[in-house]
């Protein structure tokens, strides 16, 4: 679990982005991928469409998992006020996961494939607005060490990407 502020001795300054910057970068990446899909879907063949949709789904799966395993429990422990927003986030995650499963099991040639990817994008847009507008400010008001939490998130994300065969090394970038 993340340590309190000031409890990250031994780490090189700036080695990892803080938790909120890492999660925000994930949000931006998925949003960009969904936008790319929407703009290009009519010009992509089924293989390219499938690959991009699956990339969106993999990014969302990993992102959701690190939030559920690390970020949400840390915030729940540090802030009683976050409980309602965390419950809503859990419901949103469940809806997104359901659509992700459908897209992963579907064929890009099916009638509903594009619609499912579009709805994922709409759900993600709403979820990001809620999370960045409510949960992130709550996290900033707690005594959570966001740098340490960022290290934990980055390490778990790298582990999950490695398991998926997509290790990219971008998890340790500094926040812009």
Assigned CATH class: Mainly Alpha
Determine the oligomeric state from the structure. Answer: single chain
* Helix amount: over 70%
Number of domains: 1
3D shape? elongated
Number of helices: 5
**What is the SS-derived class?**
mainly alpha
- Which sheet architecture does the biggest sheet show? none
- Distance from first to last alpha carbon: 25 Å
Please describe what this structure looks like:
This protein is mostly helical. It has a single domain, classed as nmb1532 protein domain like (Four Helix Bundle (Hemerythrin (Met), subunit A)). The chain has five helices and no strands. Helix 1 (19-40) packs antiparallel against helix 4 (113-140). The longest helix has 33 residues, at 46-78. It is elongated, with a radius of gyration of 17 Å. It starts with 18 loop residues before the first helix and ends in a 12-residue tail after the last helix. Mean pLDDT is 87; it is low at 1-15 and 166-176.
Layout of SSEs?
Elements: H1 19-40, H2 46-78, H3 83-105, H4 113-140, H5 146-164
Helix pairs in contact: 1-2, 1-4, 1-5, 2-3, 2-5, 3-4
Could you give a quick summary of the protein structure above?
This protein is mainly alpha-helical. It is built from 5 helices and no strands.
Notable traits:
mainly alpha; disordered N terminus; 5 helices; single chain; 176 residues; elongated; Four Helix Bundle (Hemerythrin (Met), subunit A); 71% helix
């Amino acid at each position: 679990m993340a340590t309190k502020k000031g409890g990250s001795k031994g780490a090189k300054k700036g080695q990892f982005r803080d938790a909120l910057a890492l999660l925000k970068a994930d949000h931006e990446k998925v949003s960009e991928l969904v936008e790319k899909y929407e703009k290009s879907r009519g010009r992509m063949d089924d293989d390219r469409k499938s690959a991009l949709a699956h990339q969106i789904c993999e990014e969302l799966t990993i992102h959701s998992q690190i939030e559920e395993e690390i970020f949400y429990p840390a915030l729940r422990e540090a802030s009683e006020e976050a409980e309602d927003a965390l419950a809503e986030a859990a419901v949103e995650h469940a809806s997104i996961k359901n659509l992700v499963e459908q897209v992963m099991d579907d064929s890009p040639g099916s009638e509903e494939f594009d619609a499912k990817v579009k709805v994922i994008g709409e759900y993600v847009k709403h979820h990001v607005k809620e999370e960045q507008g409510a949960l992130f400010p709550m996290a900033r008001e707690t005594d959570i060490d966001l740098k340490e939490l960022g290290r934990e998130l980055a390490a778990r994300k790298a582990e999950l990407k490695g398991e998926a065969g997509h290790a990219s090394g971008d998890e340790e970038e500094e926040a812009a």
